[in-house]
Amino acid sequence: MASGFQWAKIQAMFDAFDVDGSGYLEERDFEALAARWGSLPRVAEGSELASRVEAVIMGWWYLLAEAAGPQRPARIDMTGLMAMVDRLPAMREDVAATADTIFDAVDENGDGRISRAEHQRLIDTWHGRATATGDVFDRLDEDGDGYLERPRFAVLWTQFWISDDPDEPGNAVCGPLAPAA
């Protein structure tokens, strides 16, 4: 069962995905998310990467809808999303595959590293708006070289979706967390 900490960080993502603010995630919300990712410079329409980005994002919608019940509901609330989050520790390979695709989409110059600016675009794209990040990148960049390499990014991404430890840096990979209430 998800902790209060996990609930709070995933609520921020839920709100970012819920394009119309309806309080539910619907297929069109994931289509809008895929379109946001499709607007990144490296994700050229019709490219292999564009197909992969869309497949990953829409794949998570289908898994989410399937997990919510046999009727494949048209809408998922926060409780339904958290039921999927509870299943993620058993789906580490799927989470890591998502990290790999997101990494490729964000690594604009294809150098195998995500810079501070590329990470900012990740956060802005994920949230659908410009988002102040403060010192988030510094927390993620353990070696202080100014980049996140693919293996490090995969660890951080997995921490975000699975960890309930507020001290793990990956919990901020998608942006700063709101202070605990």
Automatic annotation (TrEMBL):
<dbReference type="InterPro" id="IPR011992">
    <property type="entry name" value="EF-hand-dom_pair"/>
</dbReference>
<dbReference type="GO" id="GO:0005509">
    <property type="term" value="F:calcium ion binding"/>
</dbReference>
<dbReference type="Pfam" id="PF13202">
    <property type="entry name" value="EF-hand_5"/>
</dbReference>
<feature type="domain" description="EF-hand">
    <location>
        <begin position="94"/>
        <end position="129"/>
    </location>
</feature>
<feature type="domain" description="EF-hand">
    <location>
        <begin position="5"/>
        <end position="40"/>
    </location>
</feature>
<dbReference type="InterPro" id="IPR018247">
    <property type="entry name" value="EF_Hand_1_Ca_BS"/>
</dbReference>
<protein>
    <submittedName>
        <fullName>EF-hand domain-containing protein</fullName>
    </submittedName>
</protein>
<dbReference type="InterPro" id="IPR002048">
    <property type="entry name" value="EF_hand_dom"/>
</dbReference>
